[in-house]
């Protein structure tokens, strides 16, 4: 698990390997990840949008932007957490993800970015 705190918001990410399958005659490696967003600040915040950079061992990069996370824009009170799970597909058994969340502080109405630390995606039996 990786963790990082930005402006009182702690991001924790745990990953899982979900398996392989063929899509369009290419092997796909499926990975899951669970993100916990913990508000350690004194202010109420809301997650507005996300930005991901996904890379694999073949030097392919994919960029994903969008509103909220899994269809939600959670409001997180001081001392509370929001956890969600999602996933991605790679064409290689190794990769990594990193990014940020755009958030707003309800007390000050200021928008800010929260860093999602880089985390590895790896198919366990591919390591030696």
UniProtKB/TrEMBL annotation:
SUPFAM superfamilies: ApaG-like. Residues 3-128 form the ApaG domain. Coiled coil: none annotated. This is ApaG protein. Pfam families: DUF525. It comes from Ulvibacter litoralis.
